[in-house]
Write a structure and sequence with these properties.
With 546 residues, the chain is an all-alpha fold. It contains 22 helices and two strands. It is a multi-pass membrane protein.
Length: 546
């Protein structure tokens, strides 16, 4: 089959979905283009800071994408190109983009509260505390997985390490110029991109070579700092500038595929059970998380994006559109794997999924004059750059969840002894919360990402099911249509709970008891949240029927 045909058909479907299905959802949920947003109502200069749509889309896309839409499709290619493509397209349009847009809309209507706050308002405080623990465990796995991937990338391509480190002060200067010196965005963007190119050149000229352990330690210090800084000084500007790398990579890959005209060499379906990946159901839907639907996105949409939305009318392009852009990236990742022969794919995969992806896109880009080595370095740099942006955001969200859980505990135990209340307040401190969250994550990161990824995928997809449940409950309480959320929610619960059972069995056999504990706790928390939310939905339905 022609790779060009696959690319064009899927991209066309994404465009049509944005126009028609995204537009229909906006009407169903009462999107008000002139509606006032929490960023203006609750402005605090730290977390609630309005950002122009291009800046916020850059932050949002860079945060949700990370290495997920690359790793997942490349790894899942062992099942064949057809199931991978179908899941990315159908999952993205009818599940992932709906999930992201719905989470963002729900947060806007709850004064920028996280999904945990939405559950509190619509289900109850007990459910909120369960969700905070659930989401914190998921974020620990996300940070561990992505820290591992970034460290491996820095070791494999030290040029990307130098450039990525230089991006940090560049972003801080850019943010200071925009938000404290009122520099024009357009002019600042051109200057920032010019310096970004200089950083890339310096990275190619002066690669920093360190061990993986050293990189994990440095990454941990960086994300602790990033998690407590005001969003305007690092998070927003870094993600905005990095987003241009991502857009350039996607555009280069798109043009490269069109001109190179690859033929898909892998079979449409290879196997229903892979020796290492497991059964196609449910593992395909777990392995491909971020490219189709990802619970982490609900935490980004409600945790940081909703607090920075300048106009309510921007929610559709950022929430629904941002996920479709990620789907486009996932399709490019799929093509980078399936145009190879089975043996060629297996050989490249030994260097990791990013190696398969960067080699594939670099090969495609040779069709318009980009030298293969330079192309591969650029793609690897772009992937590591936005994997770091995901780490920035995940660390902040992990800190939020940890703080909020112990703030809730402090409030609940207000009548208890002062020593107990004091210890809870200490744990709710943002610096303490950051150090504990990231310390545990980095400890897990010393395990291979291949071990962490299936558990991360399961937790992440289960989180998506819970977020869909939260948004559906909010819509039910408002008397609004929530049917577009029910079927995806049920499907994701079935997939993820089944996968967790398989993962518990396999990790017991391998002796990975920490991951067994994580899986078991996630399973129990999910069941409890389902029961609590179902009771609320059932009572609401009975009142409506009466």
């Amino acid at each position: 089959m022609s790779g060009v045909l696959l690319l064009l058909v899927t991209f066309l479907l994404f465009i049509l979905a944005y126009i028609f299905y995204g537009g229909w959802l906006a009407k169903q949920w009462g999107l008000n283009p002139q509606g006032k947003t929490p960023a203006h109502e609750l402005y605090d200069g730290v977390d609630y800071v309005p950002a122009k749509a291009p800046v916020l889309l850059g932050h949002h896309f860079a945060s949700i994408a990370g290495a997920g839409p690359i790793n997942g499709p490349v790894l899942a290619a062992v099942f064949g190109w057809l199931p991978v493509t179908l899941w990315i397209v159908i999952g993205n349009i009818f599940m992932g983009a709906v999930h992201d847009f719905g989470s963002l809309m729900a947060s806007i209507r709850h004064k920028g509260l996280s999904i945990g706050g939405i559950i509190d308002a619509n289900v109850g405080k007990g459910a909120k505390r369960l969700f905070l623990l659930f989401s914190w465990l998921t974020l620990v796995l996300i940070i561990a997985a992505f820290a591992n991937i970034v460290a491996d990338t820095f070791v494999a391509t030290p040029q990307t390490a130098t450039a990525s480190l230089l991006f940090i002060p560049l972003a801080m200067v850019f943010g200071f110029s925009i938000y404290r010196r009122n520099a024009p965005l357009l002019v600042s963007t051109f200057v920032g991109l010019a310096v970004l190119v200089l950083c890339i050149w310096l990275g190619l000229s002066f690669p920093i070579k360190l061990s993986k352990t050293a990189w994990l330690v440095l990454i941990s210090f960086y994300i602790i700092g990033a998690s407590v800084m005001p969003v305007w000084i690092l998070l927003q500007p870094r993600d905005y500038l990095n987003s241009f790398l991502l857009y350039a990579m996607i555009l280069g890959g798109f043009i490269g595929v069109i001109l190179y005209h690859p033929t898909i060499a892998m079979p449409a379906v290879t196997t229903l059970k892979h020796p290492t990946q497991g059964y196609l159901f449910p593992m395909l839907f777990i392995t491909i998380a971020c490219g189709a639907i990802s619970g982490f996105h609900s935490l980004v949409a409600s945790g940081t994006t909703a607090k920075q939305l300048d106009k309510e009318g921007d929610a559709k392009v950022i929430g629904y559109g941002g996920m479709l852009i990620e789907g486009a990236l996932a399709i490019l990742a799929t093509l980078s794997a399936v145009y190879l022969t089975t043996d060629g794919y297996a050989t490249l995969l030994k260097g990791g999924p990013v190696n398969v992806f960067s080699t594939g896109l670099a090969t495609f880009m040779t069709s318009f004059g980009i030298e293969a080595t330079a192309g591969k370095t650029f793609v690897a740099l772009a992937v590591s750059a936005f994997a770091l942006t995901t780490l920035d955001t995940a660390a902040r969200l992990g800190r939020f969840a940890f703080q909020e859980f112990f703030q809730e505990t402090t409030t609940a135990e207000a009548g208890s002894s002062s020593s107990s209340s004091s210890s809870m307040s200490f744990l709710a401190n943002r610096y303490v919360a950051s150090v504990i969250t990231i310390g545990i994550s980095i400890y897990l990161a010393f395990t291979s990402w291949r071990v962490i990824w299936p558990m991360f995928g399961s937790a992440n997809q289960l989180l998506a099911a819970v977020a869909l449940l939260a948004v559906a409950t909010w819509l039910a309480n408002k008397g609004m249509n929530n049917k577009m959320l029910i079927a995806p929610m049920i499907f994701m619960f079935i997939v993820t709970l089944t996968a967790l059972v398989f993962l518990i069995q396999s990790n017991i056999a391998k002796g990975n008891f920490i991951l067994v504990f994580f899986a078991g706790l996630l399973f129990v928390l999910a069941i409890l949240l389902i029961v609590l939310s179902y009771n609320v939905l059932s009572r609401k339905r009975k009142r409506q029927e009466a």
